[in-house]
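Task 17 of the worksheet. Students: predict the tertiary structure of the chain below and write it out as structure tokens. Keep your answer in the requested format; marks are given for formatting as well as content.
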Amino acid sequence: MSIIKVGIVQQQCTTDQADNITKSLAGISVCAEAGARLVVLQELHTSLYFCQTESIPNYDLAVPIPGALTDRFAKAAQEHEIVIVASFYEKRAPGLYHNTAVVFEKDGSIAGIYRKMHIPDDPGYYEKFYFAPGDTGFKPIETSVGKLGVLVCWDQWFPEAARIMALNGAGILIYPTAIGWDYNDSMKEQKIQLDAWKTILRSHAIANGLPLVAVNRVGHESDPTNHTKGIQFWGNSLIVAANGEIRYEASTVEEAVTFIEIDTDQSEQTRRVWPFLRDRRIDAYGEVLMRFVDK
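Model answer:
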């Protein structure tokens, strides 16, 4: 067996960026001291989820990659000799910004980046205002713990993204995430949404025979405009085995720093039992490249 201890940091963010960064780094340290070789952080973990509103001053939150902020996480990776998946608002060029995951190798170098490909534009999630669509493609990032298929939040609803990462040789699917409830939704609707989220993530693991790590933020974040009641991020960070077994599920309301062993060799056995890659009819899938098949 090839066992990797994976750590996750599910945290509640505030307006105090320094505190958010300190909390992320402290969680990394706890995981590393417990023997984690890979630590995954949530989406945009150094700030509030600023996409609840469209505000030009929020562009000032964007940072260059590499830069002073990423250097702090690079240093943590080097000091602890671990691989870290972190998430930043990237300033690529004047007026050009991305939602970018950065993978730091255990020597502190940047192993690779992934720019979020699917960008939502929904009430409370006005991401198209802030982020240009990614252009890195669905390419796994090679690291000392294997090939990481890093995707970000809204990407998690698209089976094509997970599949292409798998076809490109990813050994683990990873999703830094920021997803929560609208306070206007009924308790029944909230349960349906959370169950749907967990189901789609497990489905990606099962369909591709890959372990999966999804780290979500937690806690209430207010709408700065007071037009809505804000978002209650639902936590529930997940670690899922290649066969779809939930190995760990975090609290809905509490922060969580934890570490779980996953067996990356399980993919081989799972794909032998469920040989989906063998039985795919790649000759018959042309329509998947169409927006819709008009009759």
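Marker's comment: The CA atoms of residues 179 and 233 lie 6 Å apart. The first helix runs from residue 17 to 33.
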